[in-house]
């Protein structure tokens, strides 16, 4: 019986009566405040995935327009046939068309080069010596741009 009480006393002796000091409480509270201050930022990043996708879509749109502008201005002839943009570039016929939710570029009716994604609708139109492009994307954004011809065909 004495052995059993001695073992229990050793465990009890490890405890003290000092308690939780004010300094320890302030240190714990400051750590809690630092962690809590990052929570709104964390939730903003977590729930703003659509806005990130929309910004990426905007950058992709700008890249698409810049590439298309160079190709249209360097082409010898351009026309809109059945809603698709057709360009004559040397001996190649380049077609930009919508395919499902993508805009693709095809050369001589071959290939499938994706140039724009997440497109709900795209329209090409010839107006005033320019090609107008209007795009509605799946994020509800509407973009339009005119590409003017400097050399090549006359409308």
TrEMBL record:
Is Repeat among this UniProt entry's keywords?
no
Give the residue spans that cross the bilayer. Answer: 21-47
Q: Which UniProt keywords apply?
A: Competence, Membrane, Transmembrane, Transmembrane helix
Predominant place of localization: other
Pfam families given in the database record: ComGF, N_methyl
Quote the InterPro entries the UniProt record gives. Answer: ComGF, N_methyl_site
Subcellular compartments:
Cell surface
What this protein is called in its record is: Competence protein ComGF
Q: Which species expresses this protein natively? A: Anoxybacillus andreesenii
Lineage, opening ranks: Bacteria, Bacillati, Bacillota, Bacilli, Bacillales
């Amino acid at each position: 019986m004495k052995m059993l009480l001695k073992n229990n006393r050793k465990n009890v002796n490890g405890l003290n009566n000092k308690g939780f000091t004010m300094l320890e409480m302030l240190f714990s509270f400051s750590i809690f405040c630092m962690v809590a201050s990052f929570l709104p930022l964390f939730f903003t990043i977590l729930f703003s995935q659509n806005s990130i996708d929309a910004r990426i879509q905007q950058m992709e749109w700008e890249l698409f327009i810049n590439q298309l502008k160079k190709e249209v201005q360097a082409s010898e002839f351009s026309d809109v046939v059945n809603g698709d943009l057709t360009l004559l570039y040397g001996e190649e016929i380049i077609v930009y068309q919508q395919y499902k939710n993508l805009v693709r570029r095809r050369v001589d009716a071959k290939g499938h080069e994706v140039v724009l994604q997440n497109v709900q609708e795209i329209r090409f139109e010839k107006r005033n010596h320019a090609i107008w492009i209007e795009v509605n994307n799946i994020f509800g954004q509407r973009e339009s741009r005119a590409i003017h011809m400097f050399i090549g065909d006359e409308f």
